[in-house]
Write a structure and sequence with these properties.
The structure is a single chain. By secondary structure, this protein is α+β, with helices and mostly antiparallel strands. The chain contains 12 helices and 27 strands. The strands form 10 sheets. A 4-stranded antiparallel β-sheet has the order 13-21-20-14. It has a 3-stranded mixed β-sheet with strand order 2-1-6, with helices on one face. Strands 4-3-11 form a 3-stranded mixed β-sheet, with helices on one face. The N and C termini lie far apart (180 Å). The relative contact order is 0.08.
Length: 503
């Protein structure tokens, strides 16, 4: 075969190959167009299927928690869920603490659903986002299995804490400090006990975990979280209490005031202070009302003696103050009375007034102290402080009250327009005014070692008030006595009364 014929054949073969390729491409294109048409038809069908339900209507078989919201609008679904939430408020939670328990409704615990609007929006959005195929898959899946938008509940922290503190916390057997029982034979130390307290925050979290996990939307029971509690005072800490550090007594008298002295002493009796620990007499003995054992009795108010609940509590603090001085403890706060008191010398008193005056002291020893308070068989209000006496042997202290200034009380005449002309009524509690200071004198084996002033006190005078009656049918007589009262001169007042009565 010549070279020319060979080339012609090769050209023919190439033309035939091109024709075959064109036919294949055309066929492949036709197939692609057909497939595309099928895909388009399927897509349009799926799109029509997934969009057949209005956008503001929740798909069938969709639940928010246990509430079916199928076919509901946004407002309808929210109303249904809110109604369902209200039903939950009546369920009861049994709050268990070991073998004890307390109950509270979910409303009392402050149950609230978290983001109701968000849950409704999530239900509306189910099967409406993502690709058409993923939406179709979700919607078709609803025919076999419901879709559940999980609820999320929480508790109002403040409300729940209040309920748990009131009802649950007391159920825990807390730790008990070692304490001392005193008898005629001496001291007996009673051992401490370990215990538990309620972890309020962890317990609230425990309830929330339960209602967002295991809760079957009915009454339920849940364990509270306990924390081991160690006693603050152990028997070994009290073994050193064996010495009398200081004591002092005042006469308890009688009447209603005696009751208040007894009540106040009983609240302080048995107190143990660890090293560095402070005691507020007001906080320990208040509130001063009938419910807490106090009665109305005489006390100072605005320079006068009036009856008030707890009258006499200042004698309790004063007696303890002097025992504290003798024990040489650290005095942090001490205030004198407004006027002199009769049961101790000036500068040896310690006044108490709610929200204003307090007596506070600190155990400045390296070992615990024990405070004993009582009204003894001799009707003496007595406080004795016990501990480990580390002061040098032969050391004694003395406290000397020194009066620096005095101001005698006067007599003040006041008109009483309701009383008969010339009558006189004595009122008030006259007291001399005094400025004083208290010396602490330290002796070693009977020899004075040091002397220092430890407090200054000022006591106001309180005048004798005499109310003079001026009631009369004759204005001239009334005016005569009123003018005499204005002079504050006893002789002129007496003369005016005599003159008026003789007219």
């Amino acid at each position: 075969m010549t070279e020319r014929r060979l080339k012609d054949r090769m050209r023919q073969n190439r033309r035939k190959a091109k024709k075959r390729l064109r036919r294949k491409l055309i066929f492949a294109g036709l197939i692609a167009v057909f497939v595309l048409l099928i895909v388009l038809c399927v897509y349009l069908g799926l799109r029509s299927y997934v969009n057949r339900i209005p956008e503001d209507q929740i798909l069938d078989n969709v639940f928010i928690g246990t509430v079916e919201v199928s076919g509901m609008s946004r407002e309808e679904a929210k109303t249904a869920v809110e109604s369902h939430y209200q039903e939950h408020l009546g369920y009861t939670a049994v709050l268990r603490v070991q073998d004890e328990s307390a109950e509270a409704t979910m409303e009392e615990l402050g149950l609230k659903a978290v983001d109701l609007d968000g849950l409704v929006e999530e239900a509306l959005d189910y099967g409406r986002s993502g690709s058409v195929w993923s939406r179709f898959k979700k919607i078709r899946g609803l025919k076999k299995e419901k879709a559940v938008i999980e609820e999320n509940f929480s508790l109002n922290e403040e409300t729940a804490k209040a309920v748990l503190n009131e009802r649950v916390a007391p159920l825990a057997a807390g730790a008990q400090n070692a304490y001392i029982e005193r008898s005629a034979d001496g001291f007996q130390v009673v051992d401490e006990k370990e215990g538990y307290s309620i972890d309020i925050d962890a317990s609230i979290a425990n309830i929330e975990t339960y209602i967002n996990g295991k809760w079957d939307h009915d009454n339920f029971e849940v364990e509270m979280v306990l924390v081991k509690q160690e006693p603050e005072i152990r028997a070994a800490d009290l073994e050193s209490i064996e010495d009398e550090l200081g004591t002092f007594s005042t006469n308890a008298g009688g009447g209603d005031r005696w009751q208040n002295l007894s009540t106040g002493a009983s609240k302080l009796n048995g107190t143990i202070l660890m090293p560095g620990e402070s005691l507020s007499v007001y906080e320990k003995t208040a509130p001063y009302d009938e419910e807490h054992g106090y009665v109305a009795a005489g006390s100072y108010e605005n320079g006068q003696v009036v009856d008030s609940y707890g009258g006499g509590i200042c004698q309790v603090s004063t007696t303890l103050y002097n025992a504290v001085l003798n024990a040489e403890l650290q005095v942090d706060k001490r205030y004198p009375h407004s006027m002199l008191v009769s049961y101790v010398k000036p500068s040896r008193d310690a006044a108490i007034a709610e929200g204003v005056l307090d007596f506070v002291f600190t155990n400045s020893y390296d070992t615990p102290i024990y405070i004993a308070g009582e009204i003894d068989d001799a009707n003496e209000l007595r406080f004795t402080i016990y501990g480990k006496d580390t002061r040098p042997e032969g050391r004694t202290v003395e406290y000397i009250s020194e009066t620096l200034e005095t101001e005698e009380y006067g007599i003040v005449y006041k008109e009483d327009p309701e009383a008969d002309l010339g009558s006189m009524k004595y009122e008030g509690s006259p007291h001399t005014g005094v400025k004083a200071q208290l010396w602490k004198v330290v002796y070693q084996d009977g020899v004075e070692e040091s002397r220092e002033v430890i407090n200054h006190s000022t006591y106001a005078k309180s005048d004798q008030v005499i109310k003079v009656g001026t009631a009369s049918d004759d204005p001239a007589k009334t005016k005569l006595v009123q003018d005499a009262i204005a002079t504050q001169d006893q002789a002129k007042i007496n003369a005016a009364i005599s003159q008026a009565q003789s007219l």
